[in-house]
Specification:
Keywords: Signal. It comes from Streptomyces sp. R41. This is Secreted protein. The chain contains six helices and six strands. It is flat, with a radius of gyration of 31 Å. It has a two-stranded antiparallel sheet with strand order 1-2. Strands 3-4 form a two-stranded antiparallel sheet. With 278 residues, it is mainly alpha-helical.
C-alpha cells in the first residue's frame, strides 16, 4: 500500500527540480556566450590572416666571405647562424605587429633595428677572419634588409589602382621601360682582364671568380623578386650599389692574391660597376 509523501518531502522535490532548472539554464547561457565568443575570435583570426605582413629579405653573407681560417671557423659559423636567427625574429615581429604604427613603422621598428644588429654581427665575422688573414672589406653593404611584400609601408608593392594611374616607368629598373620587366644585370668580365695567374694563387683566384658569378646571380634573382618595389632609384640603391661594393672587395682579393708572388694587377676596380639592361 503506497503512502503519501509528507509535505516537507514534496517541497524538497520541488526545490531540487528548480535548482536543476537553474543549473540547466546557466549552462545554456554559458554555452551561448562561448559560442558567441568563438565566432568573434574566428572573425578576428580571419581578419588577421587576411592582412599579410610580408617577409624580411636580407642579402646572404656567407657567399661574400673569403676563405675562412680554421681558427675563425667556429666564431664565423656562430655569427652566420645568428644572422639567420635575427631574420626569423624580425619575421615573427612582422606577424605580431600587423596593423600597428604608421606608414614608417616597419622601417623604424623592425628593419632599422635589424640592420643595426646585422652590422654588429657582420663586423664580428670580419674581425674573426682578420685575426689570422686579410680582414674582408665592404661587408657592411650586406647589412640592410628589405620587405618582400606589402606590410607597413616599407618596400611595398603598389596596388593595382596605383599601377594603373602611374606613368609607365620601370621602378624596378630605376629608369625607363615596362614595369613588369625586371631586366638583367650585366657586369664586366674580370677573368679576361687578369695577367698570368701564379700557380700559388690559382685556387684563391678561381674561388673569387666563382664568387663574382654567384654575386651576379643573386643580384639578378633579387631584381626579379623586387619588380615594382621602391622608388625610381631602388635598383641602384638596393641592388646595383651593394653589388658593386661586393665586387670591389672580391676583385681586390684577386689582385692581392696574385700580388703575393707576382706583380699586383692595377685598375681592376674599374670592372666592379655593373649596369641594368632591358
Amino acid at each position: 500500500m503506497s503512502r503519501a509523501l509528507p509535505k516537507y518531502h514534496k517541497r524538497r522535490v520541488v526545490m531540487i527540480g528548480g535548482a536543476a532548472a537553474v543549473v540547466l539554464s546557466g549552462a545554456v547561457i554559458a554555452g551561448s556566450a562561448l559560442a558567441g565568443e568563438t565566432s568573434k575570435n574566428s572573425g578576428q583570426n580571419a581578419t588577421t590572416k587576411a592582412a599579410s605582413p610580408g617577409t624580411v629579405n636580407c642579402p646572404a653573407v656567407a657567399p661574400s666571405l673569403p676563405a675562412v681560417p680554421a681558427s675563425a671557423k667556429a666564431e664565423v659559423d656562430r655569427n652566420l647562424a645568428l644572422l639567420n636567427t635575427q631574420i626569423s625574429e624580425a619575421d615573427k615581429r612582422l606577424v605580431d605587429t600587423v596593423g600597428q604604427g604608421g606608414p614608417n613603422f616597419v622601417q623604424n621598428a623592425i628593419l632599422g633595428p635589424l640592420k643595426d644588429k646585422r652590422v654588429a654581427t657582420i663586423n664580428r665575422i670580419a674581425t674573426a677572419i682578420g685575426r689570422t688573414a686579410a680582414k674582408p672589406q665592404g661587408l657592411d653593404a650586406l647589412a640592410p634588409c628589405t620587405l618582400n611584400s606589402a606590410g607597413g609601408g616599407a618596400a611595398a608593392t603598389p596596388s593595382a589602382a596605383a599601377s594603373a594611374s602611374a606613368p609607365a616607368t620601370a621602378q624596378a629598373g630605376g629608369g625607363s621601360g615596362n614595369t613588369n620587366t625586371a631586366g638583367t644585370i650585366s657586369c664586366p668580365d674580370v677573368a679576361s682582364k687578369l695577367p698570368a695567374v701564379p700557380a700559388s694563387a690559382k685556387a684563391e683566384v678561381d674561388r673569387n671568380l666563382a664568387l663574382l658569378n654567384t654575386q651576379l646571380s643573386e643580384a639578378n634573382t633579387r631584381l626579379a623578386n623586387t619588380v615594382g618595389q621602391g622608388g625610381p632609384n631602388f635598383v641602384q640603391n638596393a641592388i646595383l650599389g651593394p653589388l658593386k661594393d661586393k665586387r670591389v672587395s672580391t676583385i681586390d682579393r684577386i689582385a692581392i692574391s696574385i700580388g703575393r708572388t707576382a706583380a699586383k694587377p692595377q685598375g681592376l676596380d674599374s670592372l666592379a660597376a655593373c649596369t641594368l639592361t632591358k
